[in-house]
Amino acid sequence: MFQRLREDIACILERDPAAHSKFEVLTCYPGLHALVMHRWAHACWTKGWRWPARFISHLARFFTGIEIHPGAVVGRRVFIDHGMGVVVGETAEIGDDCTIYQGVTLGGTSLYKGSKRHPTLGRGVMVSAGAKVLGGFTVGDGATVGANAVLLKPVPAGATAVGIPARIIEKSIDAAREEVSARMGFSAYGVTQGDDPVAQAMKGLIDNAAGNAHQIAMLWAAIEKLSSTKDDCVPTDAQTTETFDADSLTQLMK
Prior knowledge:
41% helix, elongated, alpha/beta, 15 strands, 13% strand
């Protein structure tokens, strides 16, 4: 028990720049207090002592503002920052090294008892303030759920989920799009990589233009190969490399 407490204090000092000492963390961090009391409640729950488990959970909620069902499984070095309004359901599972901010709900969408109703967070997942993760799916290792997102589907490892309802942003896909955009001499996101509707439209235009350029280049290469013995069959201006007219796209946006 004391080893896990030392781990909890160390992870808070590591992740929270506002934490100045072990004593401050031990005495003034409700997230730590809620986790310690949850371990007591969970131990009672697994032994079949359901009422004492629920009562300890109720006391933890009263003193910390954090409600963790005693049936939930919480890993090591979990950091609940601020924590007010956090709700964790009965069948939820939180992996090691996760970070959860205030106002987060790990809730369920099913009313059937005994089923897996609440989400599973992998290792190192960060759930930002106000996010609602609802359902019995898995959020992959190292994933991030954006602030105030409403997440209703699984998230791959390392991806980010943002919006209402949440959509998945995978780093590899965005990186590939940026590479294509740089090669074309045009920014796919306009000013930022935010949720501006114009920026979203530009993403689609870039993806479509890149795909078309690739297909055209492949078609001309095939025509060139088939008519290699007949030079007059291939136009002199055949497009055999991928190109993109950024000026034309700019004119469309004016």
